[in-house]
TrEMBL record:
Keywords: Disulfide bond, Endonuclease, Glycoprotein, Hydrolase, Lyase, Nuclease, Signal. Belongs to the RNase T2 family. It comes from the Eukaryota. This is S-RNase. Self-incompatibility (SI) is the inherited ability of a flowering plant to prevent self-fertilization by discriminating between self and non-self pollen during pollination. In many species, self-incompatibility is controlled by the single, multiallelic locus S. CDD domains: RNase_T2_euk (cd01061). One of its GO terms (cellular component) is extracellular region. InterPro entries: Ribonuclease_T2_eukaryotic, RNase_T2-like, RNase_T2-like_sf, RNase_T2_His_AS_1, RNase_T2_His_AS_2. Residues 1-27 form the signal peptide. It holds the Pfam family Ribonuclease_T2. GO terms for molecular function: ribonuclease T2 activity; RNA binding.
């Protein structure tokens, strides 16, 4: 009896260690560098409106996400040192306020903290907190999506619509790598949703452009994850 109790205890302990191991290993295959279009962030938040919307007319950073090819949800919330404000020197903070603002509630620090704790902690084997933010800012400067789209005459418009490839092609051409787009659906007013066939009622807004990078966050590579936009539904790029 004592024997089986202790072996049970051992099993429980071993399992606990196993879980800890799974959750703490911040291993990943590659990075997704995600830029977002701020006007879309708040346009789609009808039920819980943004408390301090900043509809900036340029792509800003959402995050740099260590990612796994076989498990799209992983890794996240790895153990390891949590965000420390003092580790971002003031010069860097003022740069991030432009490239990586919180466009929904206005608390930039809280946004950086959330992204570091959820994603940054999973790539700490390669990038410490300072490097994580520096690298992200450098990527933002090097890959100016706003300018790439502007050069291709894809400008914010309340009425014009685009296909997925209309938007992807110029980015692919300018960066020589395949990006990924993510869209958000616009909630329809009830009256419209009822009178229109379901298919037509659907519409989507361009929300994010994802560029992929290798394990070291240095080499730009093709993204090959499934697009985050509906097939065959026009895309709006709203001002
Ligand atoms: C990706 O996730 C799978 C399943 O969770 C895991 O077995 C694998 O080790 C992960 N790959 C990397 C490089 O972390
Ligand atoms: C990670 O933590 C964030 C913030 O606490 C939470 O929203 C998210 O669901 C967590 N993700 C996972 C996979 O546990
Ligand atoms: C912003 O977020 C930080 C980090 O979560 C927090 O310490 C600070 O109090 C917040 N500031 C405001 C004005 O809410
Ligand atoms: C990106 O391009 C836009 C449009 O040309 C320009 O206004 C902006 O200053 C550029 N941003 C950076 C970081 O170079
Ligand atoms: C946009 O076009 C301008 C003018 O032709 C060019 O100088 C610039 O390099 C282009 N920018 C991008 C990101 O392709
Ligand atoms: C994406 O590319 C990686 C690396 O080449 C590969 O391991 C993975 O299977 C590919 N995934 C898909 C969905 O094609």
């Amino acid at each position: 009896m004592a024997m089986s109790k202790s072996s049970l205890a051992f099993l429980v302990l071993a399992f606990a260690f196993f879980l800890c191991f799974i959750m703490s290993t911040g291993s990943y295959d590659y990075f997704q560098f995600v830029q977002q279009w701020p006007p879309t962030n708040c346009k789609v938040r009808i039920k819980q409106p943004c408390s301090n919307p900043r509809p900036l007319q340029y792509f800003t950073i959402h995050g740099l996400w260590p990612s796994n090819y076989s498990n799209p949800r992983m890794p996240s919330n790895c153990t390891g040192s949590q965000f420390e404000w003092r580790k971002l020197y003031p010069h860097m903070r003022s740069k991030l306020k432009i490239s990586w603002p919180d466009v929904e509630s206005g608390n930039d620090t809280k946004f950086w903290e959330g992204e570091w704790n959820k994603h940054g902690t999973c790539s700490v084997e390669k990038l410490n907190q300072m490097q994580y933010f520096e690298r992200s800012h450098a990527m933002w400067r090097s890959y100016n999506i706003t300018e790439i789209l502007k050069n291709a005459s894809i400008l914010p418009s309340a009425t014009q619509t685009w296909t997925y490839s209309d938007i992807v092609s110029p980015i692919q051409k300018a960066t020589k790598r395949t990006p990924l787009l993510r869209c958000k659906s616009l909630p329809q007013p009830k009256s419209q949703a009822k009178s229109q066939p379901k298919r037509q009622a659907r519409s989507q807004l361009l929300h994010e452009v994802v560029l992929c990078f290798d394990y070291n966050a240095l080499v730009h590579i093709d993204c090959n994850r499934t697009a985050g936009c509906w097939n065959n539904v026009d895309i709006k790029f709203p001002p």
